[in-house]
Amino acid sequence: MLSVSNIDVYRGETQVLWDVSLDVHPGERVAILGSNGAGKSSLMGALTGALPPSRGRIDFQGQAIAGAKPYQVTQMGIALVPEGRRVYKDMSVWENLEMGGYPKRGRRHIKQSMDNVFDIFPVLQERRRQSGGTLSGGEQQMLAIGRALMSRPELLLIDELSLGLAPRITKEIYQALSGLGSETTVLLVEQNVEMALKNSQRAYIVESGRITRSGRSEELMADQDIRRAYLGL
Amino acid sequence: MFAIASMNGLVIGVIYALTALGVSLVVGIMNVVNFAHGEFYILAGYFSFLFANALGMPIIAAMGLAVALVFVFGLLVEYTLIRPTYGDDMYSLILTFILSIVLQNAYLFIFGPYPNKPPGWIKGATNIFDLFFYGNQRMAALVAGIAVIVVVFAMIKLTWFGRIIRAASQDRGMAELNGVNTTRLNMLSFGLGCALAAAAGVILAPVFPVTPTAGVPVALTAFVVVVLGGMGSMWGCIIGGLILGLVENLGAAYLSTGYKHVFGFVILIMVLAIRPSGLFGRKEA
Question: How far is it, in rounded angstroms, from Cα B166 to Cα B169?
Fold first, then answer.
């Protein structure tokens, strides 16, 4: 459903991704792993239209993404849960979710989507009148995911879900995510390698702007090099 | 004297609040400081004067048309002058500054230096609680100003457009990821900012006649109100506008009319000394 072929991406003058290719199939959970500054977030930027690649193609369900603006990409069915969550702090939980449902593909189903989000994260329903800034980090992450789901995306991109969250909360959110049906494909970017491998079927490893390894998550989990480099075992 | 000065302060305060809302909207969404804000305000005054006096339109229609035309003019200015400058706030600052000078001179050339005044909406004066007589026109201006502010607040609170405006002024990039076409949003908010200036202009023009440079002090005060109230806060605009209107008029009544505008700046300095981000400003802003 998503196919990235040989893209180069620049941030200003600096090249941050070299010849990156990857595929995501419908219904899959795919993780992108790598340390700080490896280029994971730049890849997210390329996928959402914020950082158009200077070379290569990105296709989503047969349509080219490269060159589309972020608001068009959202309309095509890709939703991003951004790094740092970026909830609208001065708007209520309710309004945050409504903003997520703003793209045309989501606007017709706002009521249903919201009930759906409240099913996945019941705490958001309790806090629906509170402003986003008053939520805890974990609740904000749930809100950011809920907001992304409001546009009824076919592909959900999650950037650094575990960042700044207590392990218990991270686990809870991953558990809730696994309840999403296979109609939502998920592409995860994570620094927390163990968490990501446990919650994905396949993974790509990014090192200094290049994809260096890829494979089934279980195999990567068992791999000695990876265990030494990323899991400290 | 206290009562009548307060009443005057209230009327002008509401107008300040209205102009400041326009400035605040454009700054919040686009990070553009529109130095020609006062000239849009005056343009609407001239339009309403022209349509009502020269073309003989009913005053309400003339006012509505004036605001609509200024809105369209605002859209055009955004499209031609502001849009190419995104990414460098300095250019839009200089461009709107030039635009204000060009517009002032155009008004001078077309309408001359004389004060022009569109017809009033109602005549006479009302006895207020047996304290003083107050001009009906000013009362009507007060009511109209409040009405426009209420409509703006309702729009911001209740409509999609308002939700988008609040979202984009908090996190522009995120709003774009939520499907907001920010290019179009910029254009609309710039137009709306100008329309708010225009609304203030048509409401106040029958009270204070329009001259080519009469917009300068109004725009200046609007900037003071935005900073006083706190960047990005709508309530800050309202409270700041009222404070400034009242302080100016009470100061003028009891101390000296010559220092009218000084009082506002003294209040500004006092507030900023205690609360650097303004009355309702967020800390990080």
Answer: 5
Alpha-carbon gap: A103 to the closest alpha carbon of chain B (Å)? 5
CB B24, CB B232: distance < 8 Å = yes
Which residues 6+ apart lie within 8 Å of B213 measured at CB? B104
Q: What is the pLDDT of residues B14-63, one digit of tens each?
A: 999 999 999 999 998 998 999 999 999 999 999 999 999 889 899 999 99
Q: Where are the beta strands (DSSP E) in chain B?
A: 125-128, 132-135
b (16+ CB within 10 A) / e for B138-172: bbbbbebbeebbeebeeebeeeeebbbbbbbbbbb
CATH class of segment(s) B2-121+134-274 = mainly alpha
Task: Say how many CB pairs under 8 Å bridge A and B.
Answer: 61
Q: What is the ipTM of this complex?
A: 0.90
Q: Which of A44, A51, A71, A105 to mutate to test the interface with B (most CBs of B within 10 A)?
A: A71
Kindly report the pTM of this predicted structure. 0.89
Write down the H helix ranges in B78-181: 89-111, 136-158, 160-170, 172-177
Positive or negative CA dihedral for B149, B151, B152, B157?
A: positive
Could you give all domains of chain A from N- to C-terminal order, each with its CATH number?
A: 2-77+154-230 (3.40.50.300), 89-152 (no CATH)
